């Protein structure tokens, strides 16, 4: 299996534009906001492991993962630029973890305080999930600060897990109910060079759905945590979407770490199924709140979309890892779809509030009564009982440039576009661009690379390059000129996108995109009653500058269908011309509760004479 | 309050056509089929009141109502034509009831056997609901057969209820959780001439939402059983739809019985709210399974429609009673909307199987996984655990002509159309027609009537009468000619009907109607993927004879939208011409599980130059 090296985010500095602005908010606001809410809710206090019966604020089984993801996110900020205050907050939390770690390496603030005799007995209790996030945090913190204590401590914990689960097999279950430790162990193997962690990860993968010890999730069944059959044999994404995203990511890690074509092929199948059958146009996945899960092909309802922020992010993890197997623009397209839409919608423009689930359509009128079984969140919150998404957003934005480049030999693969400079084994790579506000990207490569492969985004139907190119798997391969300079220009005209007719809710509708950015309408910009608005098939669009991260808002002329009087009346298709305004989807719900829709009805031309 | 007399069904003999065929199935099949399933499920056995702990088949709190409604339905058949076998089955059940009635008149097979010391302690236990249905059955059986024992026994029960609830007020609650006894008591007052039963009914109405004894429904709150405010003050239909229909019916009874303008006005408001805001085009009401309830204005989802058969029937009861207050075609239109659609869909064409809830749209693909919180039944069943609907359909069809005529003085009001003959105080009234297969109705009136008022259905935009007329409140008033003959011809051309744009699921769609009959598409007639089919605004329709109760099937030319490859692609509105076939909605789901939709997308004309 041909492996490509991924350039990690800390080698790519975003120097301007969309992501620079977004990262500044992440650093200046989100890191502290998440910390504050986690403090208020006693998640940091729990690390003391001093809770006992009769006390308030009983630790929860997944609190360690919240704290760990926050540390990991801050570590990514520190890797980019040290910050004494944030580092001190991390050190304090880490000191608590180290101070309360058991002699044998075990650490879990819930089990140590609440159920010390029940370690590794409940498959569904997020114990190894928390361990995985602690390991990821420890790796990141070591890489960011050079401080090794946390990493050393988490290695001891990983060693314990290796012994219990792999050597002795003495735990009550074989594989964790919530995957995560698998990809963490591959990361730990990379950071430490210690192969046993990769072995353990592989064991967890091989054993899932393939052992007699694990019981199916009692509420949701075996598919819920992808245990219904061996992972290698799975063909369609199923079950809890975040669990799916994490385990598929680990499968891709396995495929590249062990050059394992079987896992690689399974990953290809699952990736194809997700992106061609089960993914919202925003990159959101897991369409139902029932088990926060994938459901089946083409089932992508709008009003009841679940599309958890963490699930979208987990799909970036999966797609990023696929790019290490081979460059195929479908992977990078998916990363881009999610990074500008379904992941970014998870955080407010001011960086303080978060969506756990992400709507494709909102009608506030429907919330007045309890008549619909599930409707989407209409407003972001500062923290949740299950608050996995806020720190996931923090770490995702801080490390977004992780997916910009891969390389092999003298070929550099350019997956994403942003004003940035990178250092790749001594070669300087810069991008000069205001992408995605504009489609022109000037790429400068110095040093060892002879060839550059530049992704042509799937949304782009027209582009031009300053040098000759050959298209392969969605990349324009160019021989780098002496100057090392290549300019590519993608046509960023707003375009209407349709969904496969099998997506029953969207037939006859279009979603408006500007480059990679999905747009939506909100009620306040469009006179409300969005369901009565129609674009026309031949609509023309104008863009207007906005202060929303530098990307434009889009205007169009469309029609509003006049209503009949009363509830039912003979059909009388009366339309009046109306102006329509579209804003980036990631910016919805930043101005109060409102109607919203990603999909807009379209009046097509047709031959009435037929 | 100007009162009109309603001609009861037993004075109107349906002599041919649609309803004759439907009634023959009801008599030949449905009566026995419901009996058999109720026998299988031990509902008749329970009348022995011999169940005790440790036995199988514990009686359920609402079983008496199932049996009572079956007896009532059979009584209506017997009133039309005696049938020894069915009468013997009734006599047997009635003997059980009489044999086990308590000395003080009480009868409830659940309480007598299971909880004898807990009479009248649980507001939500359907005790007075069962009593109401027993009283209705006893009235009907007396009227049909002249046998008075059952009626006498139920009078004793009503007398007991009068004492406990009205004189002593010694029950643990003031008004029943499930209304029904109120309208039964008005019926009992009519049949016996005993005013105290009307007084008790009025007390139950006045006290609802207006006393300190009743507690709100613990699961669903006070609106669930219309107890959130005094009934007189209610303005919008709320709560459990069957309860609503029954209590509003009783309010209308009160308004005519006591000439009470306050209740009359409340009924008008509620009727208007239901029919102009909360009713499916089929006449179904109660759009959500959550509490089987009304939700709010314009909330009429298709895939998750609940629209319980009993709720539709209860709205016929309500509308019928409104016609006793004054002739207004909105009431009779609603009766007609329900009788041809939302009530009739509740029973299979062969008369053996029943829908409890009635879909507006079915996509069988969505049932494969559990991703949608509530989806509609796809197939009728022979019996349900809560099997209120089958005997309700039985009694509804048997007594459908109850709503055909009202009269006052020398004016006869003709509300519904069917081949039939009626005897009204010695005046013979016949209708010669194949309505609804055809729109021509020849009405012949002999005897005392000078004036006839003939409803012009709300769905009808063009009609002709053989004599001069004056339109008022939706009725064509004519001076009857010497011959007593009036012919009316309603244009029955298929027409597309739109919903108010506030019904968000239906904007841009039409429902096809033929006269009063709502049509739908099923997958098997239309090549599946119904969501990709479009009618055109200027579609022309052809009718073809069918064997479905003599009404035609309808064909049209439309378009199928071609799908893009993959999940998302630039908009490309490609349509191919396609034939479309529509069948009567009441006939859906008689050929196996299939896709179905009541609403079809429409391609409108619009000016592309704008």
Provide a compact summary of the structure.
By secondary structure, chain A is of the alpha+beta class. Chain A is 33% helix and 18% strand.
What does this structure look like?
2 copies of one chain form a homodimer. Chain A has 610 residues and is α+β, with helices and mostly antiparallel strands. Among the domains of chain A are: 407-490, Maltose phosphorylase, domain 3; 495-603, no CATH class. Chain A has 13 helices and 25 strands. Chain A has a 6-stranded mixed beta sheet with strand order 1-6-7-11-14-13, covered by helices on one side. Chain A has a 6-stranded antiparallel beta sheet with strand order 2-8-9-10-15-12. In chain A, a hairpin with a 2-residue loop joins strand 6 and strand 7. The termini of chain A are far apart. At the A-B interface, helix 10, strand 16, strand 21, strand 22 and strand 25 of A face helix 10, strand 16, strand 21, strand 22 and strand 25 of B.
């Amino acid at each position: 299996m041909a492996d490509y090296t991924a350039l990690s985010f800390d080698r790519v500095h975003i120097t301007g534009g969309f992501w620079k602005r977004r990262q500044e908010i992440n650093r200046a606001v989100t890191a502290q906001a998440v910390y504050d809410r986690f403090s208020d809710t006693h998640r940091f206090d729990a690390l003391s492991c001093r809770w006992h019966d009769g006390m308030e604020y009983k630790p929860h089984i997944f609190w360690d993962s919240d704290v760990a993801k926050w540390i990991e996110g801050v570590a990514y900020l520190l890797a980019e630029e040290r910050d004494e205050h944030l580092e001190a907050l991390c050190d304090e939390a880490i000191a608590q973890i180290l101070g309360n770690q058991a002699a044998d390496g075990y650490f879990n603030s819930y089990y140590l305080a609440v159920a010390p005799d029940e370690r590794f007995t409940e498959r569904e209790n997020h114990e190894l999930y928390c361990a995985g996030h602690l390991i990821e945090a420890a790796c990141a913190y070591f890489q960011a600060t050079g401080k090794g204590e946390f990493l050393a401590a988490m290695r001891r914990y990983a060693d314990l897990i290796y012994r219990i689960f792999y050597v002795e097999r003495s735990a009550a279950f074989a594989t964790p109910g919530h995957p995560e430790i698998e990809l963490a162990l591959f990361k730990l193997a990379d950071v430490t060079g210690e192969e046993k962690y990769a072995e353990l990860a592989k064991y967890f993968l091989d054993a899932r759905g393939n052992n007699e010890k694990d019981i199916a999730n009692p509420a949701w069944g075996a598919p819920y945590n992808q245990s219904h059959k061996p992972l290698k044999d799975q063909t369609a994404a199923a079950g809890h979407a975040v669990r799916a995203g994490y385990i598929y990511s680990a499968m891709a890690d396995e495929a590249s770490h062990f050059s394992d074509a079987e896992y690689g092929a399974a990953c290809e199948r699952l990736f194809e199924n997700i992106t061609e059958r089960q993914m919202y146009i925003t990159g959101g996945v897991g369409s139902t709140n029932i088990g926060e899960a994938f459901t089946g092909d083409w089932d992508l309802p709008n009003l009841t979309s679940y599309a958890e922020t963490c699930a979208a992010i987990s799909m970036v993890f999966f797609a990023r890892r696929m790019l290490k197997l081979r460059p195929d623009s479908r992977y990078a397209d998916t990363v881009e779809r999610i990074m500008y839409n379904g992941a970014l919608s998870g955080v407010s423009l001011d960086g303080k509030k978060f969506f756990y689930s992400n709507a494709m359509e909102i009608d506030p009128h429907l919330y007045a009564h309890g008549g619909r079984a599930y409707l989407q969140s209409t407003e972001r919150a500062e923290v949740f009982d299950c608050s996995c998404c806020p720190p996931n957003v923090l770490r995702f934005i801080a490390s977004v440039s992780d997916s910009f480049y891969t390389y092999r030999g003298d070929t550099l693969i350019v997956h994403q576009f942003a004003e940035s400079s990178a250092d790749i084994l001594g070669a300087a790579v810069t991008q000069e661009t205001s992408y995605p506000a504009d489609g022109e990207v000037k790429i400068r490569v110095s040093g060892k690379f002879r060839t550059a492969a530049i992704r042509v985004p799937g949304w782009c139907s027209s582009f031009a390059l300053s040098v000759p190119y050959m298209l392969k798997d969605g990349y324009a391969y160019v021989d780098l000129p002496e100057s090392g300079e290549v300019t590519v220009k993608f046509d960023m005209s707003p375009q209407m996108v349709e969904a496969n007719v099998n997506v029953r809710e969207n037939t006859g509708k279009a979603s408006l995109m500007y480059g990679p950015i999905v747009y939506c309408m909100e009620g306040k910009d469009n006179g409300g009653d969005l369901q009565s608005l129609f674009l026309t098939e031949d609509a023309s669009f104008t863009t207007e500058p906005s202060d929303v991260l530098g990307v434009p808002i889009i205007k169009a002329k469309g029609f509003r269908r006049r209503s009949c009087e009363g509830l039912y009346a003979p059909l009388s298709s009366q339309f009046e011309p109306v102006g329509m305004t579209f804003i980036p989807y990631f910016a919805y719900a930043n101005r109060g509760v409102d109607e919203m829709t990603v999909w807009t009805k379209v009046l097509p031309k047709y031959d009435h004479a037929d």
